[in-house]
Amino acid sequence: MINELELLDPVRTVDIGTEQVHVRELRWLDALQFLQKLAAGIEQVVGAQAFGVDGTVRLNPDRLREALLSGGELANTLLVKATGLPQAHLDGLSASQALALLDAAVRINFREELLGKLRAVGGALRGTLTATVATR
What we know:
Elements: H1 4-8, E1 11-16, E2 19-24, H2 28-46, H3 61-83, H4 87-91, H5 95-109, H6 112-135
Antiparallel strand pairs: 1-2
């Protein structure tokens, strides 16, 4: 069971060499900006016409490289915002250290409790929009 303090201020401490780095949930504005970048990256790879009639997903090879290259920017954005470390410090980390921080940042910012709230808001909006369209 998650304690109340963890729900109010979720933090994971990751040992990186001799230092401890605290990884936190993103602030609201940072979360919105991150989700916008994430959505743009997904759209680059999948595109608007990505789904075939048979349900298969077709990737646009011209956009795939761009999306993969922008993934690094996406990961760095999440790490800078979740850890408060400057980019220069993150650039000096080993791959395993950066991945340990990224793992903690993803686990905190995409935990089920938080995603459940996002789904609930999405469902409420969908219901509101459906009701508005039906009454016109």
